[in-house]
Protein 1
Amino acid sequence: MKPHPLSCALDSASASPAQLLAASARSAAHPSALVGDTPVLWVGEPFTPAGRGFWAKLEGHNPGGIKDRTAPYMVAAAREREALPPGARIVESTSGTLGLGLALAGITYGHPVSLVTDPGMEAQVAGLLRAYGVDVHTVTTPHPEGGWQQARRERVAELLARHPDAWCPDQYHNPDNVAAYRPLAHELVAQLGRIDTLVVSVGTGGHSAGTGRVLRAFFPTLRVVGVDTCASTIFGQPAGTRLMRGLGSSIYPRNVAYDMFDEVHWVAAPEAVWAARTLARTRYATGGWSVGAVALVARWIARTSPAEQRIAAVFPDGPHRYVSTVFDDDYCRAHQLLGHEPPDDPDEIADPAQAVVTRWTRCRTVTRPRPHPGKGDLSLAGAAR
Ligand SMILES: Cc1ncc(COP(=O)(O)O)c(C=O)c1O
């Protein structure tokens, strides 16, 4: 498929008001109606070699980001099941994007929202969440085994105990967090017609499972490529300190569709920063950690696949919340993130247990890891009420 030429669909001198209205941006009576129908953008030369490229699904065009799709969906489903009584509090652990979606859901359905985060949340996002009326709690010390994520989940349990009517979406294990992404898959089918490869980041596993499974039903030979961060447990690596947010985990989310992935790539923070900054310079459309990591992998797949392969890559959000991290020179220098142009090809391991990876690495064996006793499946019993 060729990229669309730069063109204006209507001649504004001769178009009627009705035509202009039909061609203009959507109008909505409520912000939740602005979720979805995000555009796809062709990412080609010079980010990719001549004659190669991929389609980026720009989820940053949602009011908050990709989680605007799942937060209101999970809330509506919980209300329907009467797990969330009218006006009751929503309590969740989030590194940011789901928080924005839950703020939207809270305003849409009339629920107060409490979010638990950690010091890694950008001050701008915490400030924005407060502006949206959210009660933001920040944990100050990581759990000795489950890291920041488990520390956040334990605070969620405390808040749930304090508010007997409250409900936690439990995005890591809630199947509605997968079902919410069916429209994303349908949009891709409508926009691209045929898809040979899907490149998706994995955090809770929600958008990869929800989009990939539906697309596989349309295209049975679809290749699904998961993108994770180094030091994430999801695909069987040991937990470690992670700078990258959004993708990756220090627990084992039940929503990850292990049987669906053909391969996984782990990406390190300097490599994601290189890709996000190179995308910004060459293609304008960019994002943060997960967009950088996904773009790096999609670029490699485009280079190493036949030219006629049609590749879709999901960009979960836009660049704005990363101005103080990925796009801040002082931050990047302090974390030694600059000047690391990734290699042409990833390292390759045959099995996730073969090595602890610290830079871009690919593995074509994808299986559900067995949580280590005492570590890992630190799911919050009873949280998803
Ligand atoms: C920016 C960003 N990218 C990627 C992900 C991973 O998406 P998922 O949780 O659907 O696996 C998240 C999840 O929070 C995110 O916020």
Note: The pocket of pyridoxal-5'-phosphate is lined by residues 97-98, 201-208, 246-247, 290, 316-317 (CB under 6 Å).
Protein 2
Amino acid sequence: MKKLTGKTAVVTGGGGGIGRAIADAFAAEGCKVALLDHDAALFEQRSASLPPGGGHPYLCDVSDRRQVVRAVDDFAERVGGLDFVVNNAVYFSYSPLAVMTEDVIDRMIDVGLKGTLWTMQAATPHLVARGGGAVVNLSSVAVSFAVRHAAVYSAIKGAIDALTRQQAVELGAQGIRVNALAPGPVSTPGARSVITDEGWEARRSRTPLGRLATAEEVGASAVFLVSEAAASITGVTLKIDAGITVSGP
Ligand SMILES: NC(=O)c1ccc[n+]([C@@H]2O[C@H](COP(=O)([O-])OP(=O)(O)OC[C@H]3O[C@@H](n4cnc5c(N)ncnc54)[C@H](O)[C@@H]3O)[C@@H](O)[C@H]2O)c1
């Protein structure tokens, strides 16, 4: 028996990286998935590779509230309601704060933080109408320790953790669970663009397990958090980091 048969989900940034793996994991468990992504090339690839009837790609920039509302409303109407939301889209940039431009900082906040707020606002009425649901926000281990040149990124992820707790309390009475996943370093196009080869090896060697988590493992954890197996779990941030946050110097 598939774990998410008959369920529906919105995954932001579902065209590539971790979002793609989460969307694939949901679809493999029988869930109908809306993939909201702003990358037209990824969008084309995904449209061709999605399982028949399982995936619904939407060309959508999550920093634009109207685009998000349009995509979420359209998907909920097409599939008859909404059960799950995964807030995953990100704009990566690592630099010392002192030299970061206003444009880059604005874009990071617009995609990583405001994109999550817009998606929650768009999705919540549909989850309430369904009588309950589950949300998974993508946090990071960068909340637990300082990552070189990641001041803005870490600040956004700290806000995502706070938002996760707040929404868990605000929406709990309506049967909506809100949790976060905090991956350690995962090899994706976005993370590869900000971490050098030496940086990956340094990170891997710090983990007690001697390996880094994969996007597919994050996908499996997202399936767990939205599934009935996690029915009593809300307001938590679950680390998937091969133990990097508990390893000493
Ligand atoms: N990869 C890691 O090491 C790592 C570690 C911890 C947390 N995370 C978190 O996991 C999530 C996914 O990261 P990733 O590494 O897969 O990133 P990625 O950059 O590889 O993929 C991000 C996806 O989001 C899409 N996207 C970007 N801006 C968008 C926008 N404005 N609207 C819609 N879609 C947009 C991209 O097109 C892409 O498909 C992020 O929230 C990230 O912070 C990643």
Note: The first strand starts at residue 8 and ends at 12.
Protein 3
Amino acid sequence: MPTSIDECAGQLLAQGYVAERELATAAFLALRLQRPLFLEGEPGTGKTEIAKTLAAMLGRPLLRLQCYEGLDMAAAAYEWNYARQMLEIKTADAKLSADDLFSRRFLIPRALLQALELPGPPVLLIDELDRADEPFEAFLLEVLSEFQLTIPELGTIKAAEPPIVVITSNRTREIHDAVKRRCLYHWVDFPDAARELEILRQRVPGAPEALARQVVAFIQGLRMLDLYKLPGVAETIEWSRALLELNAVALDPQTVQQTLGVLLKYQDDIARVQGSEAARLLEQVRAQVHHG
Ligand SMILES: Nc1ncnc2c1ncn2[C@@H]1O[C@H](COP(=O)(O)OP(=O)(O)OP(=O)(O)O)[C@@H](O)[C@H]1O
Ligand SMILES: [Mg+2]
């Protein structure tokens, strides 16, 4: 467990995760205060990755709850094993009471319940909460504020030690204040050029320095454009790998043209950038990288 923000940032970096100061601070405090870390921000900027990184850095198991429309308690927390209950009713010698049937051995724990019971305690990633329906958040409140879960037939199960919780959202809708209030909040923005270069060094160590600088400058330029979907860090990494695969040592118009589909996933955006806009960006990159 880190004892300072610097130590926390250092431990994240040792796992290849480059955290800006505010994020390292939020992560550090979340660990120390045993509060969930709530991360909102641009796609592909390391929100999901930090949960994995925290698990690796602390040597804890990672439990992941991927949210989706229609996610309910049965899928998120626990479920009674009806098939097994039926079977027992049929095959039991004596009559089974409700207490027998709703006992622990018929309970199937899902991620939330597992997170409360697994020793460690684990890192619990509640990913893309904005995709779940709003009623689900109400249910999460008990788990997040008390680190406990009430099962009507069984009683309340409380974590011996709170799990480390990371919640992410892409902000397709606002998450309820009551959830946010229980968390430490951080907005994950696109990294600046220096940090993005550092991320590339960590994630694509084989990329030549000159190429990495050009890639970062080009992408930073792209993000200034008014595109439907801006490239995230994930795209920066992917593009560098693609360029390495093509044995490119520097950006040239033809290579950029041929690989735009790694960066931009909408035809309108590609059409917008192709040709003169790409050439202009490349000029800008050349000027920057040579003088920087
Ligand atoms: N600060 C960082 N340090 C190291 N790697 C990073 C960083 N930010 C992003 N990455 C890398 O970028 C990729 C995308 O990150 P991640 O999946 O966490 O994005 P996300 O914010 O969860 O995106 P989405 O909103 O689309 O789910 C991962 O491969 C991750 O390793
Ligand atoms: Mg994610």
Note: The beta strands are 37-41, 62-66, 78-80, 107-109, 123-127, 148-151, 155-158, 164-169, 184-188.
Protein 4
Amino acid sequence: MKAALEKSTYRQLADDLQELIESKTLRVCDKMPSLRRLARDRGVSLTTVQSAYEVLESRGLIEARPRSGFFVCPRIKLEDRLPVMPQGRNRTAKVERPDFYEEVMSAINNPEIVPLGCAVPSDEVYPTKTLARLSNAALREHGSSAYRYTICPGRQELRHQIARRLMTAGATVTEDEVITTTGATEALVVALTAIAQPGDLVAVEMPTFFGILRIIETLKLKVVEIPVCPIQGMNLDFLDEVTGEHRIKACIVQPNFQNPTGSVMGKSDRERLATLAAEREFAIIEDDLYGELPFEGKRPTSMLAHDKDGRVIHCGGVSKILSPALRVGWLVSERYYSQLEAVKSVSFPASSTLSEMVVAAFFADGGLDRHLRRIRQIYQDKSMHMREAVFANFPEGTRVNAPTGGFVLWVQLPRQYDSEQLALDALNEGISVAPGTIFTASDSLRNCLRLNCGFGSDERIPKAIKRLGQLLATSSKKSFGPGR
Ligand SMILES: Cc1ncc(COP(=O)(O)O)c(C=O)c1O
């Protein structure tokens, strides 16, 4: 509670100071009040003022000068610090396993490695006590039946809770349209298997979550990559052009806090995507794993809320909000329900009964909204601090996304830097990062990388960012660039 109060105080202070800068009460080159003085005048802690100044720095309004304090600076346009959208190539391609996939994944289970590579939350983010309480309660209530198979479509009380929860995403669905899965990965596998045959073409975002590319590779599908703008998401003009030329079976999209760019699609783009899907007859496979994680305000809508003729298959799960180890995910679709059910019940007939009981209870009355408020704040703080640390330590010209939810940063280094080399060098020093190349099926994004901000108060993180900066400074430079 104290942390929550503290946070709103520093944001308020940052907003007040921004107003003074915008009204030119504080002008470009003016020195900002010292931390101590402002803390005294405002009756707040030094940490509050420090955090407010960090916010203003991240908004490009003030800059720190060594041994002189903070100064109002000419406003750096946000766009000048954001990664640029990669160039698309309207080319179909097979997907081949990227070299770095295993390295990035294996770091998850090694506590010695600073985990900046995988998008995983740290242990402190999990609602461990509540999960333990709900597990015990489920075992007490259900006894040995908690150890029985749960057959497709999954436990009724969980499907009911998922349908209710989706109301907050603007969707009207019933529990009979929901199928539970073993994590969002299984939801994506089932959706793609039900919709496409080997050799079929699907559209994916570029960059996209590398797990999606792995699934596509395993199912022997072909892809066409649609560039993603780090603010607005998928480039729909490009998708329009591609689907005018090629017949695609599905478009896989993360409209909310896209992994890895953090982008959020606007309402008109969601409508346009739904219209394109209806006109060109392809399914929209929505991966909404981060939709519940806006830093502020209400969660954005699901594509289900914009669906024209039932073409949306919604995939969700609790891996980023409760715990990835529960392995609870879901699929929602009316139109494709029987196809999805057929695939699920043959390939993956059962789900984890105890996990489904616990998640259903958490959604029903485990304080989900309270828990989400807590972790959204952690993610916001960590993302903001890490973004500043990256600007402070990485080479000049580095661009970083400014996410409004989720917990990953997408970093674009100047063209001559090689993120695969960085990933190798960093791994030798016990730091894992995800190079840009694993987020695309094409040979590009080599000067990009993704950083995980899901970690709460791991004190190794600032040192790791500093070390990455040093490794970049001494690395041999080549020439790479987005969309190359
Ligand atoms: C966008 C996205 N989709 C799906 C997944 C897989 O989720 P799960 O762990 O529930 O299988 C992840 C995990 O990182 C992800 O980032």
Note: Residues 386 and 453 are 7 Å apart (CA to CA).
